[in-house]
Structure formats: structure tokens, C-alpha cells
Amino acid sequence: GGAARLYRAGEDAVWVLDSGSVRGATANSSAAWLVQFYSSWCGHCIGYAPTWRALARDVQDWAAAIRVAALDCAEDSNREVCQAYDVHYYPTFRYFRAFTRDFTAGENFKGPDRELQTVRQAMVDFLQNHTDANWPPACPALDPIRPGDVLSLIDRRDGHCVAIMLESGGSYVGREVMLDLIPYENIAVKRVLDADQAFLEKLGVSSLPSCYLIHPNGSHGLIDVAKPLRSFFSSYLKSLPHVRKKSLLLPGKPSAEEKAEAMEWREFDRSKLYTADLESGLHCLLRVELAARSALAGAELRTLTDFITVVAKLFPGRPPVRRLLEMLQEWLASLPLDRIPYNAVLDLVDNKMRISGIFLTNQIRWVGCQGSRPELRGYSCSLWKLFHTLTVQAGARPDALDGTGLEGDPQAVLQAIRRYVRTFFGCKACGEHFEQMAQESLGSVKTSDQAILWLWEKHNLVNSRLAGHPSEDPRFPKAPWPTPDLCPACHEETRGLDSWNEDQVLLFLKRHYGSSNLVHTHAA
Ligand code: FAD
Q1: Per-residue DSSP letter, 14
Q2: Using one digit for the tens of pLDDT, what is the confidence trace for 475-513?
Q3: What number is the ipTM of this complex?
Q4: 196 CA from centroid of ligand 1 (Å)
Q5: Closest atom of ligand 1 to CA, residue 469
Q6: Sign of the CA dihedral with 423 first, then 428, 434, and 438 last
Q7: Lowest CB count within 10 Å: 74, 92, 360, 408, which one?
Q8: What does the alpha-carbon distance between residue 342 and residue 415 come to, in Å, rounded to a whole number?
Q9: Which residue has its alpha carbon closest to ligand 1 atom 32?
Q10: What is the C-alpha to C-alpha distance for residues 139 and 176, in angstroms, rounded to an integer?
């Protein structure tokens, strides 16, 4: 007892099972399961936990077909159940087929090693070992089709995309891409193995694996990915215009959908940063979020002053907004009082003196932060973009904070953001999560580059925690960012796992959130 649990339900993508849930979960399930019976005091198990967490995250999209779970046999309350499953040493890995009727202790996983890639491939093989009678309904047919079938697919139009993975016999990429696309609709993925040279030439394929795409309107061609890796293919297919994440909303809520139809949609480029988003975000922050308080005093007021200082000195937007922020900052910095009514801030933001050339829109106009329904994305999206912009600007303009009392501190921007989020961000749970991450690791940030990467990494942690959450916009599924199409150089494959090249990520962030990437289209 007393040992820390290795997996946390809700935090990790691993399904955490216990004596009360393991039978119900694995018996007669519509999905197959891979369960690790472990002990939280076993050294091997502790060492292996990061791999298991990474695997679960890596195959999160496969969950309707096969799930990665863990059960702690060191818990007193789980002892009996571990005996019933005949677990003698830790960790023990067991597969459970879908739709098993009688109790089973599962099938042992046998592999040459327990590397992430080995286990993932074994999961694919295990799925394929199901029969027609117990095939998990969410799992696509994994067997290859014949080259001849491709031609008939090209002739037939049924309103959705068909992607055909062309690969060699031993490859798992096609099946992994098929499983990655399970939560998405309007797309079917097929695979063709070891097609002959003449056939490949006809499709224009020069190397394997490749992906040939048939669009809903019947046009077809090879897709162009920077690297022939699973993550690149999957990410490309997920971002096709007709492809959507299946809605998790229960039927009977069509009104929100109807409203979405009525909303005007602004086309935009995901590789750009829009002034309209940043300015709409500032409007919400200053006129809506702060308005929840009637007065600002003491530590709260200092938090606001520091945050506004950072924004005023670093915001790269248009001059009228920058001047307004400067005016607000100077006023806050010079206040002799420890308490001000919120209305005083509002008067200033609304520029009651009507000084020309000083102005912040009082309209909300989301562009890159548009949601497919009004309650999705918007303000919280714009806040993230503002925060990333601030860390990047602080690196690009090291003198910007001179004279404010914040100069020379590589953590200054992150600390101001952290205190703002904890004190003012309307989403309380968000503030608490963010504070927890800050407590764990913000102290290790020593340079402005590390500050940029810290925020990027934490934002990705939030993304991965929120994947599949009701607040996820089906049109903007949560995924590690930047995706391979936005930054091919940021992605590598290390031992079968999509991994980051952090030097390239840093360069990308500096470009993406740099002032030259800011466009004023749609700005009021
Ligand atoms: P967002 O996550 O808002 O991202 C906005 C844009 O930033 C993306 O479209 C992309 O262009 C870019 N981006 C994405 N990832 C990265 C990255 N790693 N680095 C740099 N840029 C990136 N919601 C909850 O339900 N629970 C929470 O605990 C929670 N915590 C939050 C904490 C903070 C500080 C903030 C600002 C928001 C939090 N939210 C939380 C809201 C949630 O993170 C999203 O903002 C919201 O779900 C809208 O998602 P989105 O699709 O617009 O993308």
C-alpha cells in the first residue's frame, strides 16, 4: 500500500479497471481489450508505465474496436480478482476478444519484446484474429482488397471519400491508418498489398506505402504527404474537407446543428494567425471576463496589472489596439490606489475620451477560432493563441519589458499568464489544471525558448486530455499540434512512435506566432 497509482483515470488514455469493473468491461464487450495486470510496487511496472501511457494515447482513436487498460493487483481490493484471472507475475498482458460469453482469463500476449510498436502491431493481429461472429462492429474490415476492386471503387460514387493504402505485405501502416480513422465519418480506408508494377504505374505510385484518394465527386489521385508515415497519412485524411469526427452528441439535439447551418462561415487558412481572433479575444477578456467583478483590489489587481503590462508591451497587433493597451497599462501602473471599480477599467477600454487612433473592437468576430457551433472554441481558443503569441514575442523582443519590473526574467510572461488564468479565467477547472501543470514544471524554465516550448507542451497535454470530450469541436478534433501537414519537419518516427523534433517545433512556433504571420483579413 501507499505506492502511487501508476495510471490515472481521466488523465491518461489508459482505461483504469478494478475489481468492480474488469469483468463487466471485458465480458461480452463490443470492443476487444488489452489489459495490463500490474503491481504499483513492481519496478518493471513502474519503468514500463510511460510506454503503456504512450501506447494508449497513440491508439486512442481505436478505442471503439480495441482498448488499452490497466489493473493494479497491489490494491487490496483487487487481490481476489487478480487471482481469478490467474495472474502470477507482473506485468501480465492479456487480450480479451470482443463478445466473449463465458468468463475467460484472457489470452497471453507473446511478443519478442514489449516495445510500443511491437505491442501495437500485435493489437492489429489480434483484431484480425476475430471471426465474423465476434468481429467488433466499429472495426473496419482489415483484410486487403484486390487491385481490380480499386477500379470499381473509382467508378462508383457514394458520397464519401475512399482512401486506398498501397503497401507491401509486411506493412502495418494501412491497417493502422484504417483504425486511426474509426472516429471519423464520410471516409472509408481500404488497402491493397503487393500490387504489380503495371498497376502501380497506372496510379502513378513510385514508392510504398502510398495513398490513393477517391473524392466524393469522383475525382481521384495520389495524395502528397511529406513523409510516408502513418501519422502523416492519418492526419492528412482526418483534415479532408468532407471528413468529420463523428459527433458524440446524443440524437435529439438538432437545434444546435440547425443554428450552425445559419451561421456564416468564414473560410480561413490554418497556417495563419488572424488579428480578428486576437482582438475579439481581448474584447472578451477586458469587457466580458473582467466584468464579472465589480471591483479589483490587492493581489487580484496586481495580477491584472502584470498581465496587462505583458500584453501591452508584447501584443503585435494593429496600432490602435496597441495604443489602447499602452494607455491602460500606464494608467494601471500609475494608480496610487489598491482598489478600483471595474467600471473605471471599462471607461478606459471604451475610450470615453474618444482619443482618435486608440480603439479596440467591441464585436466578436472569430476566424481561425470559429466553432461549428456557437458554444465551441471562440474565446478559449483565442486565449491560447494570445498566450503563445506573447511567449514568442518575448523571445523575439528581449528588451520589450525593460523598465516594467518584469525585465530579465525568462518566466515573467508565463507567470503573468499563470496568475491571470488562475484568477480571472471563467473556466475554474481549466485554471486549476493549468495551475497544477505550472506547479509541476514551470520552475524549470530558464530561457525564453524554453518558455515557448513549455506552453506548447502543456497545451498539447490539455489537447490530449480533452480528446473525445463534449467540448471538442468535431470539425477541429483535438490532436497533437502542429499536425504533420502544418509542419512536416516537426514530426519524426522513433521506434514506431510519432515523435517531435523540438528544434523544428521551436522554429515553427516562432514563425506561426510571429508578427509576420498575422493577417488582418476580417478584422473589424
Ligand atoms: P485550442 O486548444 O483552444 O487551441 C487553439 C489553437 O491553438 C488551435 O486551433 C491551434 O491553432 C493552436 N494550437 C493547438 N495546440 C497547440 C499547441 N500545443 N501549441 C501551440 N498552439 C497550439 N477546457 C477543458 O475542458 N478543460 C480544461 O482543463 C481546459 N484547460 C484550459 C486551460 C487554458 C489555459 C485554456 C486557455 C483553455 C483551457 N480549456 C480547457 C479550453 C480548451 O483548451 C480549448 O481552448 C477549447 O476546447 C477550444 O478548443 P480549440 O479546438 O479551439 O483549440
Answers
A1: S
A2: 899 999 999 999 999 999 998 899 999 999 999 999 999
A3: 0.99
A4: 46
A5: 25
A6: positive
A7: 408
A8: 23
A9: 430
A10: 11
